[in-house]
């Protein structure tokens, strides 16, 4: 089977320009501007012949100190996780109220149980960073524990009262959350914590991906989304990358035309479509990437003799998804973005980078607070909260989980003796990546994190890192190499 993508043949030279690595000067300028725009001090991005880009400190950091907070460039909440957590579709902060979070989760679980009449852990994602085999086991067990054997249903009407704010839980006001702002396109899929997040998402990608009634693309988009939810929700993230690039392209192009008209000169005629597209693509050009079907790790249950056919299947799946996306949002001026080569590289970028999105649930904090109360307040509160805990079961609180592209975190190289870690503190309530010094770091040192469990023996660490497509050459590995 040969998978031909006609756009790939037609736009070969544009695609090669998009995929050629940015020059050192472009890299330096891009990160200098990014760090200045974020008023992020104390760190720089440098390139090295062995490891590519890396983040360095230009002042000393103490153990436990915050090194940086990195807002994502694009991100998605996993499809299955949407059942458990209602979060802002732009910044991924929990929204509504503690009552709404709990009521909605119980309601969705009940719906799911009724619909599937049994266990269906779904296959929304086979992406290696999203759900490894142990997670899948947990999910299955959660589903088993989701049966009426371990969860005690609430009396009729309680779930509705939680969802429509008629039932107010004791002390829940101490855990107030931002209000729920629906998508302006009324798709019923995206919700926000504020109008500014709604507008920012609309401008960055949602205006092209919204499935609201008034969207001309609705049917085609729904088909694309259904396919992604049934196969791999990483395609939704790739669609966001393409949409955001398209929208940036249109904005840059209109600025360029305005300039031409204003100055009435030909000096801007050099701004042809390709140079504008390259500019719009710049943030993505910075990410380390390879084709998805070349870099995805062979799953444990696939024999190495089936390697080639596995990779062909992955490529065919990507083509299927791309064709659905193309039907929905194709733009002739940005045709190269709709080639399989570009689509494969975007997904490969997520495969190769360490890009989990996690936001802790306020529901956990709420129940811990109740548990810490003293007599008689605790006993009073628990008369109401205990039945709710019994209905939620052991996994009473689930974090928001997804995948994202963090422009600075994705520059962090791995070390098996890292000096920093991605770690959310109590105050980190949104989807930004947070990097903390794990020990003191001296001015000039490279910041490194561990992509895997650094306490594993040498060979196991190398095997885990093979999933990220490289053999580790950190000082600890060089020393331990047999
Ligand atoms: C998330 S990226 C880190 C940023 C990357 N250096 C860049 O230029 O964009 C991960 C890639 O960096 C390289 N890398 C990171 N840590 C490494 C290490 N300890 N040994 C060898 N290569 C490493 C590998 O090519 C890996 O696939």
From TrEMBL:
Annotated SET domain residues: 41-452
SUPFAM superfamilies for this protein: HIT/MYND zinc finger-like, SET domain
Keywords: Metal-binding, Zinc, Zinc-finger
GO molecular function per UniProt: methyltransferase activity; zinc ion binding
KW Zinc-finger (keyword) present: yes
Region described as Disordered: spans on this chain: 117-149
PANTHER family found in the cross-reference section: HISTONE-LYSINE N-METHYLTRANSFERASE ATXR2, SET DOMAIN-CONTAINING PROTEIN
Name of the protein: SET domain-containing protein
Organism whose genome encodes this protein: Psophocarpus tetragonolobus (Winged bean)
Native organism taxonomy: Eukaryota, Viridiplantae, Streptophyta, Embryophyta, Tracheophyta
